[in-house]
């Protein structure tokens, strides 16, 4: 019984990790799509947006 419980926790943890990776990927792509005025509004340079936007989703 304990093994099934820990497997369930492992699957849940893996699902959360994959979800987090997906969210990072989407937000980083959205950051790259912002225009210069939008980046200025949030206080991020184009270079910073590019650096963050091209970072691997698992980081």
Strand count:
0
Per the principal axes of the C-alpha atoms, what is the gross shape? rod-shaped
- Give average pLDDT, whole number: 90
Which stretches are poorly predicted, pLDDT < 50 over at least 5 residues? none
Radius of gyration: 17 Å
Number of helices: 3
Compressed to H and E, one letter per element, the order equals HHH
Classify the helix fraction into a percent range. Answer: over 70%
Which sheet architecture does the biggest sheet show? none
Distance between the termini: 35 Å
**What is the domain total for the residues?**
1
Residue fraction in strands: under 5%
SS content category: mainly alpha
Layout of helices and strands, plus pairs?
Layout: H1 2-33, H2 36-42, H3 46-53
Features:
59 residues; 3 helices; rod-shaped
What does this structure look like?
This protein has 59 residues and is mainly α. It has one domain. The chain is 80% helix and 0% strand. α1 (2-33) packs antiparallel against α3. The model has no long low-confidence stretch (mean pLDDT 90). It has three helices and no strands. It is rod-shaped and about 55 Å long. The chain has helices at residues 2-33, 36-42, 46-53.
Task: Describe this structure in a few short sentences.
The protein is an all-alpha fold and about 60 residues long. It has helices spanning about 1-35, 35-40, 45-55. The termini are far apart.
């Amino acid at each position: 019984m304990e093994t099934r419980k820990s497997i369930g926790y492992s699957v849940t943890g893996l699902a959360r990790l994959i979800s987090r990776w997906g969210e990072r990927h989407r937000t980083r792509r959205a950051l790259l799509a912002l225009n210069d005025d939008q980046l200025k509004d949030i206080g991020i340079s184009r270079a910073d947006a590019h650096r963050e936007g091209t970072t691997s989703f698992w980081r």
